[in-house]
Design a protein that fits this description.
By secondary structure, the protein is of the alpha+beta class. Helices cover about 20% and strands about 40% of the residues. It is built from four helices and 13 strands. It starts with a helix and ends with a strand. The relative contact order is 0.20.
């Protein structure tokens, strides 16, 4: 497939994504204004988070760069790793698409995030994460949480890369944090859609009233020096409104 055909294909996909988002917003607006009991409404809407904001816009500012532990890639998004991890380094960049058909919006488009770890097998890497801030106010306005995302993991050998996992972290005023609802997934070499969900009963037990901040943390594979690229092309959080 040549570059022009690839660009046309990508443009069509972006247009479909944009249409679906517009339809969802239109539907949610009508549900909110519907002439029936608000308590009976099943209104599901977006949950504000930094990583989704990065991937759903034209993001040329994230050029290829080496990042230190917890250095922000963009506001509210970072890669974390143990500071004593000798021989470990990490580069990031976005592959970003500008939708030129929307001349009024310079950020119209979409991006995928690429992470390039360099893992020295002679040193122990305690942890390796991708982290995104989530609006604590938005979390208080819903009674369950669903996160749909599409990752892919490339390695220099055919050996299986270890699993990755995801969880919600809440921060509290006494400088304390707690982690909730871990879930593991296979780290595959092809882009595949996964879903992370906290149901109504689990969500009700979360101490959101006391929390002052929140993050979704993805524990990335760290046990192999063969892992050379991680791609994240979609990340979308939704929740049913209280």
């Amino acid at each position: 497939m040549d570059k022009a055909a690839l660009q046309a294909f990508r443009s069509q996909i972006y247009s479909m994504e944009k249409a679906l988002v517009t339809m969802r917003a239109y539907m949610d607006e009508h549900i909110q204004n519907a002439p029936f009991d608000a308590d009976a409404q099943d209104f599901t809407g977006p949950v504000e988070n930094a990583l989704e904001s990065l991937l759903t816009r034209f993001s040329p500012e994230v050029t290829e760069q080496a990042v230190q532990a917890y250095e922000e890639i963009t506001r509210g998004v970072c890669v974390g790793f143990s500071l004593d991890a000798g021989g470990f380094s990490c580069k990031v960049k976005t592959d970003t698409y500008h939708d030129e058909s929307d001349a009024e919006d310079p950020t119209a488009g979409s991006s995928c995030l690429l992470i390039y770890p360099s893992i020295d097998p002679e040193h122990d890497l305690t942890y390796f994460t991708l982290e995104t801030d989530v609006s604590i106010d938005a979390l208080r306005e819903i009674n369950n949480l669903t996160l749909d995302f599409v990752p892919a993991f490339s390695a220099s050998s055919d050996e299986l890369v270890e699993d990755f996992s995801m969880y919600l972290r809440l921060y509290f005023p006494d400088s304390r944090h707690e982690d909730y609802h871990h879930k593991s997934y296979p780290a595959l070499g092809i882009p595949l859609a996964f879903s992370y969900h906290i149901d109504d009963a689990q969500y009700e037990s979360l101490p959101l009233a006391e929390a002052i901040g929140a993050r979704i943390i993805i524990n990335l594979p760290r046990a192999t020096s063969d892992l050379n690229r991680i791609l994240l092309s979609s990340f979308m959080m939704t929740g049913a409104r209280v």
